[in-house]
Amino acid sequence: MSSHIRRRSFLKGGAATGGAIVAASAFDSAGVGAAALGPGRSINRSAVGRRQGSGRLVVVFLRGGQDHLSTVVPYTDADYYDARSTIAIPDDVVLDLDGSFGLHPAMGGLHSLYGQDRLGVVVATGNAAGDRSHFLAQDLCEYGDVAVPADGIGWLARYLNGSGASGASPFRAVSIGNNVAPSLRGYPALGLASIQNFGLGGLTGTTEPMRSTLDLAYLGNGAAEAFGRQALEAVDEVAALSASTDSDPVARGFADLAVLLEADLGVEVATVDIGHWDTHAAMGTPSSGEMAELLAGLDGYLAGFQADLDGRQLGDVTTVVMTEFGRRVAQNGSGGTDHGWGSAAFVMGGAAAGGVFGDWVGLAPADIGPRGDVPVTTDHRDVLGDVVSSVLGADPGAVFPGHTYQPVGVA
Amino acid sequence: MSAEPIDTATPPVAQARPEAAGGPTRRSVLRSLWAPALVASAALAATKLTACDVASGPYVRTTHLLRRLTFGLTPADRSRFDAMGESAWLTEQLDPTGPDVSALDAQLDALPALAMTAVELDAAYPAGNYSTASGQLQLAWIIRAVHSPAQLYERLVEFFSDHFNVPLDGRNLSLLKVVEDREAIRPHARGRFADLLVASAQSPAMLLYLDNATSFAGNINENYARELLELHTLGVDGGYSEEDVVATARLLTGWTIDRNTFTFQFRQARHDTGAVTILGWQRPTDNDYLGHGEQFLTWLARQEATARFVCTKLARRFVADVPPGGLVDAMVAAWHSNDTAIAPVVEAMVGHPAFEEAPGTKFSRPLDYLAFGLRATGTTVNPTINRQELAAVGQALGGLGQLPFQWAAPNGYPDVAGAWLNGGALLARWNAIGDALSNASPVLGADVAPLGAGLKGRGDAEIYDALAMRVLGEPITPIGRAVLRQATGWPEESVPSAAAFDDGLLPAVLALLTSPDAQYR
To answer: Could you tell me the pTM of the whole model?
Structure first.
């Protein structure tokens, strides 16, 4: 067919849509992200350290229900070892935090950040509703509510809409991935699967290129038209950025995100998803098996991202890490764990306060009750409220209207 | 696409879109417009403003019905539909024997993995090469979507593949999913839901994916039981308790996989034979322990909550993101009066007045969109077992974010506009269709020349009208003509030369397929 067709500086990587074959999904890596600062609002990129309310936020969601007890291990709790006869993390291999809790031995990178007071660890946190459905629990965490709200607006969208700078950049909120994170529902966030593939292809020849045609076709006011213009505007900006070619889509997403944050694009909030935490079977031993691999991966992603940010002197970026629920205290019949409640959360870099936060009531049968869950003592909205207040300078009461904010002190 | 009749007095472009008047530069228009426009669209409503439509015309039920029930319009299918009439067409599509698919089956013979048992797959596709087997299943998905005469059946297979989602994740699941598609999903996708549910529950792929294969008496794994109640039958608001989840898991202990044949096995020795009560269902007192689980699944399929949950999802897939209540009621009634048979439910949906509402407003998922574009352009999808070619197909679909059978969570790919519509996603769609039309993959053979048949030597407006009808199934609007003028470079009110026609045809088709209209069905 038509031999005059040529690719127009098509995707930087060469291949049409090369790269991630990983589909975004509720358990998989998708990622979302940033919002834009309004015109005239400048970021002091060289500032490093805690700066109240002028920072930028990255929200990392661990999809599938991340196991608290293998990650932030209560290594002095005998009930923990009784409940997990084959998959517990022994006390002599944990990386100690505070004499009561330790990180999984695969998490040396985050442990190092903890030692620099740049990592806050929150134990026994979660959504107050305590639902064990992945999908409802994720929704509730991302709405920041204990029931599905009528307006269907995510908590990050509520912040963005409430602090709306006029003429906001298309990059004000970015999700790393094909799908935008539900926390951004109700705000026109940009999905960006990779910088490498964020280019316009199309046809060239003796006629007008695709670009000008699309500019005209997407001039109307419907939803598709508006998002089409967002894409066309964003393409021009992303074209100048250096693209990660990492074959691991999550690592590539974090690397691309650091580039986006450094560029003067108005990125204010960003989201990244990391999947595969639904560990119902064969979690393995401290040194091998699924959990060790997942946590080594997580440590590499997060510590690597922080090192990247540090190298770019982006001290205004704070990362918060959350999941929809933790897993059951006792292991199940498959060497794994079923859906539970209390989970661990992290706040890293930027405005993070080092230390272990949150109350711990123990794992004795009387404490965990008939459900056998880690009891939640800190509402996840209080962890997020800390970063809303300290990083974004917004009122947690406005972002989480049904909740009375009680500071945790982790940011 | 709008439901309004075509208006010959439609204002010229500049008046229809006042923001474009005065001829500001494109960039300044975009800068000033996009922020308020996006705020206005914040709710991500799937509605479109007719003023922006590239194509618009009188409501034609045929176009609407084929855009919703098939993977896209082709001239051949439209002719067949017109010849048969709606009722006979629908009956044939839903009949278990269906339209003649022998030519398609012959094409699929080139993909040997599709016909293999698990043991054969295990032998033929070792650890380093299993993706060649699952890649054949993914390629078969596209071939069937684009080429199968049984279009509605393939749509239902897709729906239930999402409903009972099992991802191609690792070697074991990937190989077992190939078997499950053939033996559990496809045989029942236009049969009884109760039978489909049992087939899914006893499918080795599902048993492995949601861990029921390792759930035994006294040492249960709740994973499958929970998703069975939440995602496959009652729905998260279906009224079950945590105790019901545990009881269901106990009832299904010992449902596992034979280690030699990789087929379903009931290990009674490891089955919990104790009393079970779930939501009012009570285990019988006889010794048919396997039968008890099967009876419970059939009971579940017949529950009102199950009927409502599955019918709402079907209506969301085929009608609207928020299905009209009356429509779902009619489908639920058909579900109950036909003992969970799927075909009467679909007929009730298509026959309901609400099915006609809001044509052209259902945002297409990425694969809907790609298949629509491939069918509209008469593109041939060729089977291949070449590993590099399969990988290239995977990359193309992965870039769209919807590689078939690759959603990791048990709820399947989402089905509402809010999950799919954002700037980056649109960019990926434009690029995917551009790649297809550029023949960037050896698997796809695009040729737009037939779309231009009989149009050479005609006036530009006449050509635009005909192309819009052929590609989108609707007459073009004045705005659409302006877009196509931009794409072709043909002077207004001209007769393009033969060379100009040849040069402009492909950009014109690409412009139609990348337009906002093409994003909806």
So the answer is: 0.87
Cα distances (angstroms) measured from residue A12 to each of A174, A201, A234, B221, B499: 20, 10, 15, 46, 32
Reported as type and span, the H/E element at residue A273 is strand A269-274
Contact A405, A381 (CB under 8 A): yes
Contact B515 A217 (CB under 8 A): yes
CA–CA dist B479, A222 (Å, integer): 14
Q: Tell me the nearest-neighbour CA distance from B396 into chain A, angstroms.
A: 5
* A-chain residue closest to B481, CA distance: A217
Asked if ipTM goes beyond 0.90, one says no
Please report, in tens digits, the pLDDT of each residue of chain B (521 residues total). 333 333 323 223 222 322 333 322 222 222 222 223 333 333 333 333 333 467 766 678 899 999 999 999 888 888 899 999 999 999 999 999 989 999 999 999 999 999 999 999 999 999 989 999 999 999 999 999 999 999 999 999 999 999 999 999 999 999 999 999 999 999 999 999 999 999 999 999 999 999 999 999 999 999 999 999 999 999 999 999 999 999 999 999 999 999 999 999 999 999 999 999 999 999 999 999 999 999 999 999 999 999 999 999 999 999 999 999 899 999 999 999 999 999 999 999 999 999 998 888 999 999 999 999 999 998 999 999 998 889 888 888 888 999 999 999 999 999 999 999 999 999 999 999 988 888 777 788 888 999 999 999 999 999 999 999 999 988 899 999 999 999 999 999 999 999 999 999 999 999 999 999 999 99
Residues in B closer than 8 angstroms to A276, CB to CB, are: 408
Residues of B in contact with A337 (CB under 8 A): none
CB distance B202 to B264 below 8 Å: yes
Mark yes or no for CB contact B52/A221 under 8 Å. Answer: yes
Residue B115 half-sphere exposure, CB side, CA atoms within 13 Å? 8
Chain A hits for B21, Cβ within 8 Å: none
DSSP secondary structure, B77-120, as one string: HHHHHHHH-HHHHHHHHHSSS-S--HHHHHHHTT-GGGG--HHH
Distance from the B428 Cα atom to the nearest Cα atom in chain A, whole angstroms: 8
The minimum CA-CA distance between B242 and chain A, rounded to whole Å, is 9
Tokens of A261: 């944050």
Contact (CB<8Å) A19/B395: yes
